[in-house]
Amino acid sequence: MFGSTEAVTVDMVRLALDAASLRQQTIAHNIANVNTPGFAPARVDFEQQMGAARAALDQGQPVTAAMLGGVRPVVMRLAPSVDADRSAMLDLEVADMAQNTVHYQALVKALGKHMSIMSSAVAEGKR
């Protein structure tokens, strides 16, 4: 049981890091093209796909590898904004990038702590 729980935990964090990385690239692309006429900004769809895992956790059930099987971050194009205020769009994109950066850093820190705990557990068993 421990091994499968460990694998699912690492898989969930890996998926979240992949989504955050893809989101960073997508936001950067949106920022680079904010003044391009007819440009259609994009968003990354990921959190909604984690609904089954979130529901299981809310009910006190374990998350299984099968729940994560089809979960992948996906870039989705939005409708082009014709008359949008470009400075407001830029402000929103920069705010999204800052939020995503903090999220990515939190995931990396949590994964580091998780691995540190696992390392300590393994090292204690060798003494």
Automatic annotation (TrEMBL):
InterPro entries: Flag_bb_rod_N (IPR001444), FlgB (IPR006300). Its main location: other. It comes from the Bacteria. Keywords: Bacterial flagellum, Cell projection, Cilium, Flagellum. Coiled coil: none annotated. Residues 16-39 form the Flagellar basal body rod protein N-terminal domain. Pfam families: Flg_bb_rod. It is found in: Bacterial flagellum basal body. Structural component of flagellum, the bacterial motility apparatus. Part of the rod structure of flagellar basal body. The basal body constitutes a major portion of the flagellar organelle and consists of a number of rings mounted on a central rod. Belongs to the flagella basal body rod proteins family. NCBIfam families: FlgB. This is Flagellar basal body rod protein FlgB. It comes from Massilia mucilaginosa. The gene is flgB.
